[in-house]
Design brief:
31 strands; disordered N terminus; about 20% strand; about 850 residues
């Protein structure tokens, strides 16, 4: 480009492509301050107001862009450049206020100006206000619309302002050399240049570069994304130490890259660790002033480039840095293709809830404001609180003499202040890890601060509770029998068993099973309807040393057949009335209602079982594939019982309803709540426990104090008329606020969570009406939970990951599935 090419005049001046986009956005949403560029300076010393105003007027006269408005002619926007203006600076005198009142009023004025919209057709697109605090204290507020300015222009503005003020206070004329061209000339040249082969070459690059790019970077947010982006925002500043800033510069030099590339690669890594996405698109403004004639102009030249990084394959940071270097260099070579035309050409699927092509931005700039040196004045920048955010998240870094300073601009629709504060800690920790070991794989670089590590890995998992870890659950039951032998243990319709009677029957069955060859870890099937025999059978199997495999007689024949074949049970306990539902199997069939238990001893069998032996094998539903038998050990269930007694306040006066099918792990949860604490367990037929009125009647008639139900069952129960019900535990499904609101009044309400692989329950939360968020709570006693990413690194608070459970409740693994056990039981 040469000067002759640029010096073109026309009556109707078109807009540049960038200006045209901002004009279009202004048509869509007038009265928006989204594209305001505020500058705020504190001036300390003797100020010459006349020279100040003269300097600003000369800058406006010197740059046509600052004397331009944008009008519509036949549906098209054109530039109107005013030869002369009557522009003046506004002056506000606050000298009558106290110092504290001055600070408040000045900040309000600064925010008001920064957030006051421009009328592109009528208003001067630069406004300034001088706030007088005293003879030696002033604030200068300048605000320009982005359609006539950009970041580079801010530097030009400040440099010229400094030069002119110095000249004018000495009574000298402007020392600035005339500008060879104006912004309108650039707009005309751009439209003439970007045609034909040039246009196609530039477009082809970006089409290849952005082919099959993801539409959205799904950052973890504090709230759901609104249907329409509001651009409401805030900012938060942070500072890197001089040492870390220096180390980043040295790393960049060593790797042959710019500091911009290093910081961008680090930001890409942060986004990868936050989202798990390997294809990261970040927008970044490039000055787009490749010609020397443009360097001293104020105007909207900056072009937004979409910088796409591929983080697949878990590269080292150095490897990623080399890739980013090549990508940025290629993008820089094609920076003249306007972002506006790119969006139009690619036609991404539009969604009003987020910006097209990218939603996160990054910028690195050199310090500008601090370079202001006005004769007789000490000048320092003032931070004006922004109320807008163009994107979900923008990281703007500034390279100052004393180190790097960063500012997050973020959408307040999506993020809380505390979330951005944590993000700062993660970014700084990541940068420290990078300079310490740039050869480290990006998935392994440190992210959590020391405080977070202590909280997530230690404090939140400090759940140790001492109990007799070598005790099996039937031994705990035997202790209760000794303490309260005559207390009622089981109730089923009109039948009752005391603890002594229940123990005696279970002992007789245990001796019978031992005579049939049941030894520790022998799998014994239990296919019975709800009845006293169900609990007798379960305890008898455990006392014999075996592990019970529950089989619901109402399951389809194919599922029962699979479970029997997979488990290869040696003995199958059942009842006469369900025989016709059983498929063919290899095990010895024993009908509990035919078995003559009187011939067997009633005393407790000598225990041959230790806590690491199996208590049961519970089959998963198979909703994600073939059902899996989970091998649960005694120690996990013993630990669960301990946690239940402590959490729910169980004792001999408690009345517990047994609601869950025996094939669900929730059934052992209910049984252990009772027989482990000396409480009374109530059983019912399937019909008697139907959700709705039948279940309500059981709860009322039995005066149940503790019940565990799925939230969906609780939701359909009639109005609450259960004064005896002290504790409700929901599990198995997500719980709604409405259910909590209805059922938590004047009683304990718990949300329990846990897979069968963690011995029924891993975490619990106590809930009440008014809770802002419903959570699965904290780990129960002697259990640890961690949320990790796919590379098994702990994720920060608020970042999605996969729940990992460890501790006393962990099952042995999956029956006959060694490969799956190896994969899931890490």
């Amino acid at each position: 480009m040469n000067t002759e090419e640029l010096l073109i005049s026309t009556e109707e001046l078109p807009l540049s492509y960038a200006q045209q986009r901002l004009w279009f956005l202004d048509q869509l949403e007038p009265n928006s301050a989204l594209y305001n560029i505020p500058i705020a300076l504190r001036l300390e010393g003797t100020l010459n107001q006349t020279a100040l105003e003269q300097s600003l007027q000369e800058i406006i006269q010197r740059h046509e862009a600052l004397r331009t408005n944008f009008i519509t002619v036949d549906g098209q926007a054109i530039q109107v450049i005013h030869e002369e203006t009557t522009w003046t600076i506004s002056v506000t005198d606050l000298t009558h206020l106290s110092i504290n009142e001055q600070e408040i009023a000045a900040q309000q004025l600064a925010q008001q100006q920064a957030n006051q919209a421009f009328d592109l057709e009528k208003d001067s697109l630069i406004r300034a206000r001088l706030i007088v605090l005293s003879e030696t204290q002033h604030w200068l507020l300048v605000c320009m619309h982005h359609i006539v300015s950009d970041g580079w222009s801010t530097g030009v503005f400040i440099q010229e302002f400094t030069t002119l003020y110095k000249a004018y206070i000495q009574g000298q004329p402007s020392p600035l050399t005339p500008l060879p061209i104006q912004y309108a000339d650039f707009a005309l040249w751009q439209r003439e240049w970007l045609q034909g082969e040039v246009l196609q070459q530039q477009l082809s690059y970006w089409q290849r570069q952005l082919a099959d790019a993801p539409d959205l970077l799904s950052l973890p947010t504090d709230r759901p994304r609104p249907a329409v982006q509001t651009f409401a925002g805030a900012y938060q500043q942070f500072t890197l130490s001089a040492e870390l800033s220096s180390q980043l510069t040295k790393l960049s030099q060593k790797q042959g890259v710019t500091l911009f590339m290093t910081l961008l690669a680090a930001f890409d890594t942060l986004l990868y660790r936050y989202t798990g996405q390997e294809d990261i698109l970040v927008g970044s403004p490039f000055a787009n002033r490749n010609q020397s004639e443009l360097e001293d102009l104020i105007g909207f030249f900056v072009n937004t480039l979409v910088l796409r990084a591929d983080l697949s394959g878990n590269p080292s940071f150095n490897e990623l840095l080399n890739q980013v270097r090549e990508m940025v260099m290629d993008a820089y070579a094609h920076q003249n293709f306007p972002f506006e035309m790119l969006v139009e050409a690619l036609q991404p699927e539009r969604d009003l809830s987020y910006t097209p092509l990218f939603q996160v931005s990054f910028v690195l700039q050199d310090e500008t404001i601090s370079q202001v040196e006005l004769t007789g004045l000490k000048v320092s920048p003032l931070q004006v609180e922004s109320k807008t955010s163009k994107f979900d998240l923008t990281l703007a870094m500034e390279n100052r003499a004393d180190g790097l300073v960063g500012v997050w601009e973020y959408s307040t629709d999506l993020f809380d202040t505390s979330t951005i504060e944590r993000m700062t800690g993660h970014f700084v920790t990541l940068l420290e890890g990078i300079v310490s070991n740039p050869q480290q794989e990006i998935s392994q670089l440190p992210l959590l601060t020391e405080v977070e590590q202590q909280k997530l890995l230690i404090e939140w998992n400090d759940t140790q509770v001492d109990y007799r870890q070598n005790q099996c659950i039937h031994q705990l039951f035997e202790e209760i029998v000794e303490q309260t032998p005559n207390a009622i243990a089981l109730v089923f319709e009109n039948q009752k068993l005391t603890y002594w009677e229940l123990n005696s029957r279970a002992n007789q069955l245990a001796h019978a099973l031992r005579s049939l060859g049941v030894t520790p870890d022998t799998l014994v099937g239990l296919c019975v309807e709800r009845s006293l025999e169900m609990v007798v059978g379960l305890l008898g199997i455990l006392k014999a040393g075996g592990a019970y495999v529950p089989l619901d007689p109402d399951y389809p024949t194919e599922r029962l057949s699979f479970m029997l074949q997979d488990a290869q049970v040696s003995v199958l306990l059942t009842q006469q009335r369900v025989l016709d539902k059983l498929p063919q199997h290899q095990g010895l069939l024993v009908c509990l209602d035919d078995l003559d238990l009187a011939q067997h001893r009633q005393d407790n069998p000598e225990s041959r079982v230790q806590s690491f032996y199996l208590a049961n094998v519970i089959y998963t539903s198979g909703s994600t594939g073939k059902p899996k038998g989970v091998m649960v050990e005694h120690r996990g269930l013993r630990n669960l019982t301990q946690a239940q007694i402590q959490t729910f306040g169980l004792d001999g006066h408690s009345r517990i309803l047994q609601f869950a099918s025996l094939s669900f792990d929730a059934s052992i949860w209910e049984i252990l709540m009772a027989v482990g604490s000396g409480a009374r367990l109530y059983l019912g037929t399937k019909e008697a426990l139907m959700p709705g009125q039948p279940l309500m009647e059981r709860l009322r008639d039995y005066a149940i104090t503790h019940v565990t139900l799925p939230p969906s069952v609780l939701a359909v129960l009639p109005d609450d008329q259960l004064p005896q019900l002290q504790t409700i535990i929901v599990a198995g499904e997500a719980c709604s606020p409405e259910v909590i609101k209805q059922w938590s009044v004047d009683r304990n309400f718990f949300n329990a969570y846990g897979p069968t692989e963690a011995s029924v329950c891993a975490t619990m939360a106590k809930c009440s009406d008014g809770d802002e968020k419903i959570t699965i709570g904290r780990p129960i006693a002697n259990v640890q939970v961690y949320i990790l990413d796919k590379n098994q690194q702990a994720v920060p608070v608020g970042v999605a990951g996969e729940l990992h459970i460890g501790g006393a409740g962990l099952a042995r693994g999956y029956l006959n599935r060694p490969e799956l056990t190896k994969e899931k039981f890490i």
